[in-house]
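Summarise this fold before class:
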Amino acid sequence: ASDRAPSVLNGGLGKISPIYWIAVLALGAGVEVIGLKKASSTYPDYTPGDLGFDPLGVFPKTEEGKKWFELAEIKNGRLAMIAITAFAFQELVTQVGVVDETPIFFKPLGTALREAANAGYIQ
């Protein structure tokens, strides 16, 4: 694979500073501590993943809406895991980085649409 994407398969993750990984670990641990505190008996209505951050107020108020939203979030996370696994498998099989193999995903939307129109894909 290329050096354009820090893939697990091409050893690129080792090129990132250990300080970054320490910061990521500390941030993740901090979020987990907040979640564990909320999951305790102090917050009996706690839902895993709900840290109370909803500045736009999009989380539904009804029980049915909450259940749908929670299920949608789980499905979204699972789809993201499948997608990143597919990208990693694609790099393994083709020996070409995902950035080089699928450049349309790594361009600004306006540029991608203009190129598609110039190629005749969009009328």
Notes: The CA atoms of residues 5 and 99 lie 7 Å apart. The chain has one domain: 12-118.
